[in-house]
Amino acid sequence: MSVNVTARQEKLADLVKSATVIPVLTIERLEHAVPLARALVAGGVRVLEVTLRTPVAIEAAKAMIAEVPDAIVGIGTILNGDDLKRTEALGAKFGISPGATPELLKAAAASDLPFAPGIATASELMQALAHGLDLVKFFPAEQSGGIKALRALAGPFPHIRVCPTGGIGEANAAAWLAEPNVLAVGGSWLCPAADIRSGNWAGISAMCARAMKTLKPA
Ligand code: 3PG
Question: Is the model's pLDDT at 162 over the cut of 90?
Fold first, then answer.
């Protein structure tokens, strides 16, 4: 385990907490990256998770970092040590995974990147904790039992810090955020694929501004 894993986790916790909402972004076309990041930032959403789900994801994240300085860009859908290395190399601020394989946890603990593995069970959580990673993505949150499941996990693991994603949207985000161990919620609902494809940047900004007003009143 890297000696500064605790410091990195604290850095990540501050960042995630400041976000309240982290949009999970799937970028199909490179030219969408910068206007999308600008639209999110204009709506008050600054911490962005660019998922490695499309061939342009890495270039998209690089473009956002270069051209939208107010965006805090992290990478999601990190599946292995190679993805982790690519994430560090491009200058992303954090990494997130849907899961927690032994190989990935070991690589994450040894790297300098603030990183949240994905967990849905006590055993996965125990493996993450064994590597000093106490801030986790609870995924898929609604499908894995929702808030009740999270509360059950908090019994044996009261000190975990969580960013749930999967099935979260305007209707249930506030309920998740009211849980004491939830630092922020993540999801794709703020960036519908149809709005990205049609370049509805104003619509995305408006939706973000509405969500932030409701979930994080000034
Ligand atoms: C993720 O990777 O966090 C999920 O794809 C987000 O789930 P959602 O699309 O249900 O918000």
Answer: yes
Query: What percent of the chain stands above pLDDT 90?
Result: 94
Domain of residue 89, residue span: 2-210
Mean pLDDT, residues 80-91 taken together: 97
Q: 118 CB less than 6 Å from ligand 1?
A: no
Centroid of ligand 1 to alpha carbon of 93 (angstroms): 20
Is the CB of 173 inside a 6 Å radius of any atom of ligand 1?
no
How many folded domains does the chain comprise? 1
HEC readout, 27-87: CCCHHHHHHHHHHHHHCCCCEEEEECCCCCHHHHHHHHHHHCCCCEEEEECCCCHHHHHHH
**pLDDT level of residue 2 (50, 70, 90 thresholds):** low
CATH code, domain with 185: 3.20.20.70
128: CA distance to ligand 1 center in Å?
A: 20
